Amino acid sequence: MVGRAVQIVKINDEDAEHSFTLDEEALNEILNKPEIRDKPISVVSVAGAFRKGKSFLLNFMLRYLKSGGAEDWLESESVLEGFHWRGGSERDTTGILMWSEVFPVRTPQGKDVVIALVDTQGSFDKNSTVRDCATIFALSLMTSSVLVYNLFNNIQEDDLQHLHYFTEYGRLALEDSGQIPFQRLQFLVRDWQYAYEEPYGEQGGKNILDKQLTIDEKQHTELQALRSNLTSCFSEMTCFLLPHPGKHVATNPNFKGNLSDVDEDFLQYLKEFMPTLLSPKNLVIKFLGGKMVKAKEIVTYYKSYMEIFKGNTMPEPKSMLEVTIEVNNLVSLASAKELYMASMESLCGGDRPYLNEQVLELEHHRILDSAVQEFDARKKMGGEEFSHKYRDQLIKELEESFLQYKAHNDSKNIFKAANTPITLFSIWAILYIISQFCSLIMLSPVSNLCNLLMWGIVITGATWAYVKYSGEFSHIGSQIEEFTGWVWDNMFQVLLSKAAEQGTTYVARQAAQRMSSVNAPLEKKNR
User: Fold this and answer.
1) Alpha carbon of 432 to those of 370, 447, 457, 464: distances in Å?
2) ∠128-129-135 over CA atoms, to 5°?
3) Is this prediction's pTM over 0.90?
4) Which residues of the chain have pLDDT under 50?
5) Which residues, other chains included, contact 117 with Cβ-Cβ below 8 Å and sequence gap of 6+?
6) Alpha carbon distance 241, 59 (integer Å)
7) Helices (H) and strands (E) in the chain, counts
8) What Å distances lie between residue 266 and 251, 263, 270, 282, CA to CA?
């Protein structure tokens, strides 16, 4: 099978603080590939208690996506491969893993999207602290568009309590932007034992979820608030009931994923479940701040959230919201800056010819306005007051980038590059002519002064050439270039402009006279 599971978040169990580390390079290798980096992404994460078959489930997802959602996707291979998994009571997955291959899909609306699959460390094993479990769950939920909450036997009250932390965050986010903070929460109840009460599948899951989320007046106010907030925090909550995969899967230590050993009922309902999650029409694209998230932007989200989860305790929901607002604005800034850079590269990049300075200045302002409009167009969390500083930062960075593009463009101007030697030679030639003329009319002092200045110009030119060749005494070279630039701009260019103006006027006058001389005989003839 092409691809492999790549650990993007690592946890150091040997460290007393159980520190988390983001492998940014590995994440970039997956999501920053040229062919996918700018495409909208759907991130499907699976979270839940340890040793409950999360990796086993993800491998069925892999098979479904590899087959392109074909009808016979379960019959395409006999052995289950992909994310590493094994039987037994000890945990297998640590940290957070992402499959190295993302899957391109075209939605019914014609949108090209990529799907990323994420596996997470199971909760509540003997080596994990409560903070470890909460951090893994938080990272999964905050960065995914669909979180599959993998549960065993039933939806218990403690399963809902694990979401309590995020309901407060969701309430604050809802108050700030008016938008539902999380997208789809998919409860997946494994080994459902009460098929005589509710049938396996989507409908049975819906009935169970509705019962669990129903607010009863007899419930404690805390439980009522939890259910109310949960409903408002997620744009969609669904549930699916799966039967047991079979005795051979659960008890045989030699089971290697051969589908012939899996119960038919399990495979039948799994075949029903996968399209509800991964088919193009049911795909949930990651959104934040009203905009679709691109694959490359997921890296920024992970980096920002990892920073806030570095402490020994879980951050306050308010702090989580502040980080989300910040990353939302940073992504908007990066998108606008990328638009500016791409446009400027096509205008005056490395292989483009020299562009007139005035034209470059005008194009810079036009592209800058477009980039700022792109930033403003993205609906951002935190309001205008918060995003204003990022808008100012964007303009500052783009102005700095323009100076670099301008310098690069100037380096392509052959005449400007040779401006210093041409100016020095012109001064030398003028002094030479004056010296020779003064010699003819016996003005020896003036002639000698010109000769002395000519030697000075030769020494200045030789010094400039040495500086350019050796790279030493660059400050002297800069002073020489400033001097020649001033002479050119204030003397030679003025004279050339006046000469060009006089020449244009003369040509226009001559053309008018010729027209008059041609029209005069015609007028006489017409008379």
Assistant:
1) 54, 9, 11, 21
2) 90
3) no
4) 1, 87-92, 123-126, 522
5) 44, 58, 61, 62, 65, 98, 99
6) 18
7) 18, 11
8) 16, 5, 6, 22
